[in-house]
Task: structure prediction
Amino acid sequence: MTGLPSRLLRTIAHGLWAAVLLAYLAYALIFGIYAAALFRFPFDYDQGEGFELLDAIYFSRGQWPYRDIESYPFYASNYPPLFHLLAVPLVWIFGPRLIAGRLLSTAATLALAAAVGLAVRRWTGRWALAGWAGGMVLASNYVYHIGPLSRSHMMMVLFETLAVLALARADGFPDRRALIWGSLALMAAGWTKQHALITVLAVLAYLFLRDPRRAMGWALGFAGANLVLFFLVNWATQGYWWLHIIEANINEYDYRQAFFLYGQWFRLHAVVLILALSLVLYELYFDRLSLFSVWAVFAAAGGALAGKWGAGESYFITAVVAGILAAARFLSRLEGWTGRAVTDLAVPLALLLQAALVFHLPTDHPLTRPVARLLGLEGVRYVDRVGYTQLGHLPTAEDLHNGWKVVAYVRSAPGPALTEEASWALWADKEPVTNPTQLLNLYKNGQLNPEPLIRMIREQQFGVVVLRAQFYPQPVLDAIGQAYRPIDDVPVNGFLYRILAPRERSAAP
Result:
């Protein structure tokens, strides 16, 4: 290889980097196709979407979503308020529709990719490496799956990343301006989703390594400000904030689920993680630990929370982004050690391997159908290296038709409806009732008396019941089985929705 003329080496290198950028641009296009398909799909694609929208709807009415769980509508929220408050203007524009949350989450995901790419461009001065870093955010299977959904997770990761980028700009202890901006971004992340605590701990550890005394001062101030706000919200909601945010999130833990997701995370992002680990080991033994190394380690450890019941792949997205930044940091240093001749050949080959590891492709879209045909994937609805996944495929015309059929059942039934997902009730202009997973958690923790809800079910006050995963507490499911009978099973988006009517009468769309 060393005997090849330098001009030929440069030509090969340019071709490889062009292939890298083309591959990750293709993933960005696939993300856009998926997001656009979800914008047009009016129903819950993922079970929690409608309830995150419902929080925003309550805020748009000037009401708290953190409320009494033992009186109608028996609703329990799940997350802090920032994402839902930011969605309020979109609710005013689009009405109580999932497009509001999906637009906001997609914007946060694109902003995250841009922030990562621009940060790498600032370090390296190379647009090619910056393009890979930003594109890798969108290429990750986990980001692809979650990014366009009406979920708060991507907004949290955006704020976490902005905090790290602000605080890591100085080699020593951050100056006052960096501390202010970094702290505000960290605070925003925590008030978007509780999982941001992992990044808060990473920042504290990094600051402690730089200056223990000043780090403890920062920690006391940061914790104090957040605790004051926490208790003010708890007081304003008559204690239901604590119940919804803390008590309802104490879930059962399955270490096998955590081990499975760790293995999947590494298998999908192996090149990124090996490069990130290389930065950690180099800085640990030969240099000072940067915030990027510390964050990568803490975020990887935080993936253990994915073992909680109800958790999943989204808990690794922070680790994915932290890994990308650490990997890019290592690659920027590698070039200085080995020279461009080595990195311009070896690095793009490694990044192309990473592109193959995260391969995913919806095959039933006009822009992707020729690629599917070329790869021999005709007749396959969706391909993903994750293996079995409920996310990522494009909703079909049949899904849309059957979704409106479910709405027709809910709309035509007298009185309120008990629907396991919120969008069915919202499209029928009815108040969504309950958040089943939260009620189940609270029931298991001894914090819920289900009798008021069970009484309404036994009295058949709900004109129709729509079940999917049957995540209600068991006594609630027993009451439904005694008072209601199944009248139809409607497949939508890969799930089977069971429609039940009161036993003494039927419901018809």
